[in-house]
Amino acid sequence: MVRACAIGALGYLKAQEAKEIFLESLLDSNLEVRKSALQAVIDLNITISENKMNEISKEEDPEIKKLLSLLKKSGPEGI
C-alpha cells in the first residue's frame, strides 16, 4: 500500500526523474503498485518496450487492461 501511494505521488508530481522507478514497478509483485506505475507512465507519456507491454497484458485485472488501452492510445507512436 505504501509503495503504491509513493509511486502514485511521484506520478502526480510529474517526477520525470523517477522514470526508472516507474518502469521497474510495472512488474512489481503488488497489483496496486503496478497500477500506480502504469498510471504514472501514462501521465508522463513514458515509452515502454513492446516486451514489457506484453508482460503487463497477461494481467487479468480489468483496471490494468483499461490502463493498457489508454497507454496504447497515448504518445506519438501509441506506445
Structure described in brief:
This protein has 79 residues and is mainly α.
Throw out a few tags for this protein.
single chain, 79 residues, mainly alpha, globular
What does this structure look like?
Helix 1 packs parallel to helix 3 (31-43) and helix 3 runs parallel beside helix 5 (62-73). It is globular, with a radius of gyration of 11 Å. The chain has five helices and no strands. The chain starts with a helix and ends in a 6-residue tail after the last helix. The protein is mainly α.
Query: What is the chain-wise order of helices and strands?
Result: HHHHH
Helix content: 55-70%
Query: What percent strand?
Result: under 5%
Note poorly predicted spans. none
Largest sheet: none
Rg over CA atoms: 11 Å
Q: Please count the helical segments.
A: 5
Mean pLDDT: 90
Q: What is the number of strand segments?
A: 0
Quote the distance from N terminus to C terminus.
27 Å
Shape: globular
Number of domains: 1
Class inferred from helices and paired strands: mainly alpha
